[in-house]
Amino acid sequence: MNRFDKLFGIRGEAQVRYLDGEFQVVAPGEFVRCAVTGQKIDLADLRYWSVELQEAYASADISLNRYLEAVRGRGQG
């Protein structure tokens, strides 16, 4: 985010590409949504996501549970 984003007040949902250990903002915004709960997560507070599923999570517990669901789902194919 640069000074113009703050000046013009870009508010809304960002589009993000989740990478290993970092994320890349594709379209500017202030937050992303948790893929499980729909809760808004400020980009400054974003800590948990899945590179494979390209999803953000509000907490470590939610992230772990989603990971376990995904692993179980792969075993049923």
Any descriptors?
single chain, 77 residues, alpha+beta, two-stranded antiparallel sheet
Would you mind describing this structure in some detail?
By secondary structure, the chain is α+β, with helices and mostly antiparallel strands. The protein has helices spanning 3-8, 60-75; strands at 15-19, 22-27, 31-33, 40-42, 48-50, 55-57. The strands form 3 sheets. The chain has a two-stranded antiparallel ribbon with strand order 1-2. A hairpin with a 4-residue loop joins strand 5 and strand 6 (55-57). The longest helix is centred in the C-terminal third of the chain and has 16 residues, at 60-75. The mean pLDDT is 90.
Distance between the termini: 41 Å
The oligomeric status of these chains comes to single chain
Unreliable stretches covering 5 or more consecutive residues: none
Tally of helical runs = 2
Average pLDDT rating: 90
| SSE string, helices as H and strands as E | HEEEEEEH
Secondary structure blueprint with pairings:
Layout: H1 3-8, E1 15-19, E2 22-27, E3 31-33, E4 40-42, E5 48-50, E6 55-57, H2 60-75
Antiparallel strand pairs: 1-2, 3-4, 5-6
Short description:
The chain is of the alpha+beta class. It contains two helices and six strands; from the N terminus they run H-E-E-E-E-E-E-H.
